[in-house]
Amino acid sequence: MRRDFEYIVLGLGGLGSAAAYWLARRAGRDVLGLEQFELGHVRGESQDHSRIIRLSYHTPGYVELARRAYAAWADLAAEAREEVVLRTGGLDFAPRRSAIPLDSYRSSMDAAGVAYEYLDAADIMRRWPQFRLTSDIHGLYQADAGIAMAARANAAHQRMAREHGATLQDRAPVVDIRAGRGEVDVEVEGRGYRCRRLVVAGGPWSNRVLGHFGIELPLEITQEQVTYFATPHQDAFRPDRFPVWIWMDDPCYYGFPVFGEAGTKAARDAGGRPVTADSRTFEPDPANTAGVRAFLSKYLPTALGPEIYTKTCLYTLTPDRDFVIDALPEADGVYVAIGAGHAFKFASVIGKTLSELAIDGQTDVDLSPFSIDRPILKEKNPARSYMV
Ligand SMILES: Cc1cc2nc3c(=O)[nH]c(=O)nc-3n(C[C@H](O)[C@H](O)[C@H](O)COP(=O)(O)OP(=O)(O)OC[C@H]3O[C@@H](n4cnc5c(N)ncnc54)[C@H](O)[C@@H]3O)c2cc1C
User: Fold this and answer.
1) How far is ligand 1, taken at its centre, from the CA of residue 324, in Å?
2) Is 211 in the pocket of ligand 1 (CB under 6 A)?
3) If you write DSSP's letter for every residue of 70-93 in order, what string do you get?
4) Residues in the chain, pLDDT under 70
5) CA 156 / ligand 1 centre spacing (Å)
6) How much is the pTM?
7) Which residues fall within 8 angstroms of residue 105, CB to CB, at 6 or more apart?
8) What is the C-alpha separation between 83 and 78, in angstroms, rounded?
9) What H or E segment, with its residue span, contains residue 124?
10) What are the DSSP E strand ranges found in 104-251?
């Protein structure tokens, strides 16, 4: 087994699989990806059929990054000869006074020249009679939003990384890392590897990995969950008839048309209890499910039906909910990405950006909001605001 590589990617979830793919497009056999569990496992953040992808975001920077995300997914789809994004349209809706005001979403899309429609409650119900809304509710509809096919996209990144020559190793937990003299030594239980550039995409395990460099970020890991409901109105919730949606208030809920299972999917955003990757359980929280049910019965009653299943998943949250995508100041040649509970839609472009940092030492993506050195990440107990 070869021990020396130019590039090693630690963690082959959504972001790491993308990084391995984009690195392998340029560096082929010089790329090694290491994943502690089996590929496609369900202990991290990137499993399941679907994630929302959207241009609608609260800053022009995120809108621009989302544009690049669509382009990166399209490049992957073309190479993999497999669709990984399904456009359904997306509706952001809320009371006119809400915890997540729609104004910043409108101004960010205006600034970026993204077309969208501003709708009142009657407009929304005319177009999608599935909704039951009161007149104080308004919304934004953006036609490019839809579903990033999470599990399929991860598998496509992995398959194509291998086609480009990368070695991807599952069941390979990295237990030690030492960086110095332009090299990084990476130890996987009894085996040592060496590279020039290391990309860390450890998801909920990020702080454990960063601990090898003496870094601890004020991350909060939460145990989240999603529920599939066997609506008896499957046809009304087909992806060509019904959009992905986000309720922009606190609590924040979101949902999908029928995709991947014989039912709709809905969930509460950032409503889970704090855990660690070790202490988490796979047991759904009944109070969380009850909240989702109550929301749907009020605003989207025909989406409901018997529960097919509820599955748990982790968020790795930064206090400001912005990503970390940066070079480690503490160690030459080490790059890190942390997704802050909304990164899947960006997975491919984050992987591409990491590959540019690792190969070229630079990227034209504006990474300033995602700096690992930003003041809030230096605080021990920062104020946390997840509703953005
Ligand atoms: C319920 C839920 C809904 C979400 N909805 C959306 C959405 O609609 N839209 C959106 O854009 N985003 C969404 N997200 C967020 C998005 O899915 C995550 O931000 C993204 O998947 C993070 O990917 P990751 O690669 O950072 O983490 P992970 O997928 O967890 O990958 C990290 C990997 O690193 C591996 N690893 C860690 N340490 C080691 C080690 N020492 N050695 C080897 N391997 C290691 C882990 O095993 C894991 O496979 C959602 C997340 C959840 C949980």
Assistant:
1) 13
2) no
3) HHHHHHHHHHHTS--EEE--EEEE
4) none
5) 16
6) 0.98
7) 56, 57, 58, 92, 140, 248
8) 8
9) helix 121-127
10) 117-120, 137-142, 146-148, 167-169, 174-180, 183-188, 191-195, 197-200, 220-229, 244-247
